[in-house]
Design goal:
Among the domains are: 1-69, no CATH class; 163-233. By secondary structure, it is an alpha+beta fold. It contains 22 helices and eleven strands. β4 and β5 (173-174) form a beta hairpin. 39% of the residues are buried. The radius of gyration is 27 Å and the shape is globular.
Length: 560
């Protein structure tokens, strides 16, 4: 028998090698290494797929099952009115998934107290709203909603970045326009009310102080530019290196300590003003990165269907597959965000998901719909908001258009909430601008960014996982920077992430007043999440990396 190598594959993850008197041949050794690397790669790929499918299945069980369970509470009559074949096929699909739903459609009438809130007739709107809030805090699907807050006077955004960092070694060049106006004002103030003999000395001192601040500023901006997040483009590498790619300082505490010692935390107003001078800080926050949005969506599709995609019409393929599991029919078009004003099947699905709380009578009367004139006004504001987002951060704009299927504009039956997202209806943003007292472009843009961050966290949770045990979340209470009260761990985690991203975005467009509205307690909220994680261990490895990534961003922007 000739000397050689034989490879026996007993099962996908196990390979056995057999050599027959190889006599030190270099070619044989090279062949052994080559085949071993192939076997290792195959094993690694199998482990990656198994871990991915486990995460997707866990998310599906925890969140999408809620929609199926609530089929018997759905506003089923909207489905009865659907005429086209596509929606009839979807209705047929729903019928096959739930015997209770089939029974309801065959019934002549439905008891009026069987709505999504499980409420009783005769309750006041205030009582219903209290019941809704209590139920949403207790239910498994993560409902992320915001109450209306008046937007302040719109400020003009800067037209271009003021400071540019070429790479992580070269010091950024300070442009003439990069010196903040407040620095120039310091010089003017130094000249006032001074006795003539002291003016020259005071001017020299002020110039030295400003020069030190400017030198330190471009060092800071250069470091921020060098720490922009980036992601691999291959499925296996992206999935396995997720935890390392989203953090900024990594596990090396020395680098973080050196940065904190060199760059002290800044007062809030000063920090926000400096963030507005460059777009470098837009690229350190991973939800704003297009590549992660594209790859998370791609891996979610792979985990649900078992089929990989080369990117052609990936968004439409993702939502077509998602519909089978989520059972919420979302209008989708590749490269666009659909504005939904009258999709009965979407309203029915959002009712089941728990995001909307609309009774059958309210929907049948059409009180949730906007007039054509109102729709035109909303559409104009959304277009202007999207243009603002695109001019501020083109990568964020692309990510929003990749992840978000549609924005649903419907009037809430119960006053108090003006929009939100929910983990059981992934890809939909609900907005109710009728609850806004002011409808500025800045406010529309901030709310879109706000809800997109929630959606990015949901998608990352679906692919990588976030929590070890979801039953621990209601028991681990942490102070929320938005509601200013103790909330479940996941809700404070989401609120902190959203506040971080929206603060960076609003600072860049110059909306300082709104940027600092919730930022004052953000640092304390993140410290509370870190302390709770150390004590209770709520997060898995991916969730812990996401928490560290948020903490790294706050450190890098020097938040006090």
């Amino acid at each position: 028998m000739k000397s050689g190598l034989y490879l026996y594959i007993k099962r996908p993850n196990t390979c056995f090698f057999h050599t027959n008197k190889m006599k030190g041949s270099k070619d044989n050794h090279v062949l052994v290494l080559f085949l071993f690397s192939l076997a290792f790669a195959e094993s690694s790929n199998q482990n990656f797929l198994q871990n991915l499918q486990r995460n997707v299945d866990e998310y599906r069980t925890s969140h999408f099952s809620w929609n199926i369970q609530n089929l018997d509470h759905a506003n089923y009559k909207s489905l009865r009115a659907i005429e086209d074949y596509t929606d009839r096929a979807f209705r047929e699909f729903l019928l096959n998934r739930s015997p209770e739903f089939k029974h309801l459609l065959g019934s002549e009438r439905v008891a009026t107290d069987k709505n999504i809130t499980n409420g009783k007739n005769g309750e006041t709107p205030h009582e219903k709203l209290q019941m809704i809030d209590k139920k949403r805090d207790e239910q498994l699907p993560q409902t992320m909603e915001y109450a209306y807050r008046a937007n302040m006077t719109q400020l003009m955004p800067y037209e271009e970045p003021m400071v540019y960092a070429k790479n992580d070694v070269e010091t950024a060049r300070l442009m003439k326009r990069a010196v903040p106006q407040r620095m120039a004002m310091l010089i003017a103030r130094a000249h006032r009310n001074k006795r003539p003999p002291e003016r020259r000395r005071q001017k020299r001192e002020v110039n030295i102080t400003l020069q030190r601040m400017a030198n330190k500023m471009h060092q800071w901006f250069s470091i921020a530019g060098s720490m922009a997040v980036g992601f691999p483009k291959t499925d296996n590498s992206y999935f396995n290196n997720w935890n390392q790619n989203i953090v900024l300082f990594g596990k090396n505490k020395k680098d973080r300590e050196e940065f904190e010692n060199k760059f002290q935390r800044l007062p809030l107003q000063e920090m926000l003003e400096q963030l507005s001078l460059t777009d470098n800080f837009q690229h350190i926050f991973w939800p704003f990165n297009f590549d992660q949005a594209f790859m998370n969506q791609r891996l979610a599709l792979l985990g649900m269907s078992g089929l990989s995609t080369i990117g052609h019409k990936q968004k439409e393929r993702f939502y077509a597959e998602l519909e089978k599991h989520q059972t919420v029919k979302i209008p989708v078009e590749e490269g666009r965000v659909i504005l939904s004003f009258n999709h009965p099947d979407l309203v029915e699905g959002l009712n089941r998901s728990g995001l909307l709380e609309m009774s059958k009578e309210y929907v049948e009367a059409g009180r949730h719909l906007y007039t054509l004139e109102e729709q035109e006004h909303i559409t104009s504001n959304v277009q202007a908001a999207m243009d603002l987002i695109n001019s501020t951060n083109a990568d964020l704009y692309r990510a929003i258009h990749q992840v978000i299927g549609c924005i649903a504009f419907y009037k809430a039956e119960h006053r108090g909430m003006s929009g939100g997202t929910i983990s059981s209806a992934l890809g939909v943003i609900w907005e109710d601008p009728s609850a806004f007292s002011e409808q500025t472009v800045d406010n529309y843009a901030a709310q879109i960014v706000h809800e997109f961050i929630h959606s990015s966290l949901f998608l990352a949770d679906m692919v990588h996982g976030t929590y070890i045990d979801r039953s621990l979340l209601p028991k681990a209470k942490v102070y929320s920077p938005v509601r200013k009260e103790l909330r479940d761990f996941d809700k404070t985690f989401h609120a902190s992430y959203v506040t971080t991203g929206v603060t960076i975005f609003q600072s860049r467009i110059g909306d300082f007043e709104n940027a600092q509205r919730y930022t004052g307690t953000l640092r304390a909220a993140v410290d509370g999440l870190i302390a709770m994680q150390k004590g209770a261990g709520v997060l898995n490895a991916s969730g812990e990396a996401m928490l560290q990534a948020m903490d790294d961003v706050l450190t890098l922007i020097r938040m006090e």
